[in-house]
Amino acid sequence: MSITIDQTTVQDWATELDVVHARLAPQFVRREPRQRVRSYLQGLLSPIERKNGWQLAEQAGEPTPTGMQRVLSGAHWDAAAVRNDLRAYVVEHLGDPEAVLIVDETGFLKKGTKSVGVKRQYSGTAGRIENCQIGVLLAYASCHGRTFLDRELYLPREWADDPARREEAGVPEEISFQTKPQLARQMLERALAADVPAGWVAADEVYGGDRRLRLWLEEQRQPFVLAVKRTEPLWVGTDPGPWELPAADIASASNADAWIALSAGDGAKGPRRSDWTRVVIRPLREPGWEHWLLVRRSLTDPQDLAFYVCFSPAGTTLQELARVAGTRWSIETCIEEAKGEVGLDQYEVRKWAGWYRHITLALFAHALLTVIRARVAEKGGVSATT
């Protein structure tokens, strides 16, 4: 989303930065890092081309990047505590009971083998296998705005099982190998424990295909719309009785007349309209709850199908499920914004603590921009939408 820039908006940014800095100040015991973290955030929010140590230092009027680098490596502060402040800030300004918690991952392209968690692995950012780190992110999408709540670094098994690499990169002893869905569950557990108001959880096939994550969400009575592959086995009622069938087979047996054209939200070219239908799954259902296979079909290509497993309160409409499915795409926009506007991927740290510190501050900077944009939108100053 872009906004009309005027003197009032610039003043709002500066004022909000002071508010955020005051909120974070108690996390920094010493005066020097407390002051410098404000300069770090201001640099992330500035229009400089690269948000690395040298350019952040130049932006702050410092002769060397040593001070900025110390914010990420040497200073004493807890990135988890700042993350909690971020979550509270987002809820305070953007909270809504119908909001959607969205999980996705993104790649950070890196050279060499020293950066914590780096390896040749598939990066959705590049669309191919690259030498990169993978961060799993939790976003919050409400009617007021969309930004991030949490983050975790994916540590591949070869890293988790290598004591020498772990020690060199400063990986804490208690950290073990965890899959991306397991990292997603950690972040969702924190959000639910903090009573983050949210009506739904949404995610792509990486997470929707993890049955243990789906069952855990059901145990929490947390509604979800999770994408799955066409081959995902699901239980459905048949004439002989309950049977486990691939999602695509269940969809193909559905009534062709049941398709309804709906918009799943606005995109860059206007409403994203598709055909939608749903099929009841999980014959043994809990009272008051429904399980659906949701299917999206392209209006121009009937063979282009997408599949979602849904857990929702009884009476939830097809239109609402389609809305949540469409909201999931907003995290991709948030990631693109965070990389392009606040330097999410422009860090030059190799160790565990440094990664978490930079990413957390960059997500806070993005949240600040989102809050300012929401205020301008309320005043009618929006010039374009995502």
Can you offer a commentary on this structure?
- With 386 residues, the chain is an alpha+beta fold.
- It folds into two domains: 257 residues, no CATH class; 123 residues, no CATH class.
- Helix content is 41%, strand content 27%.
- The protein contains 14 helices and 14 strands.
- Strands 2, 3, 4, 5, 6, 7, 10, 11, 12 and 13 form a ten-stranded mixed beta sheet that branches. Strands 1-14 form a two-stranded antiparallel ribbon.
- Strand 10 and strand 11 form a beta hairpin.
- Helix 2 crosses helix 4 and helix 13 packs across helix 14.
- The protein is globular, with a radius of gyration of 22 Å.
- The N and C termini lie close together (5 Å).
Which structural traits does this protein have?
alpha+beta; disordered N terminus; 386 residues; globular; single chain
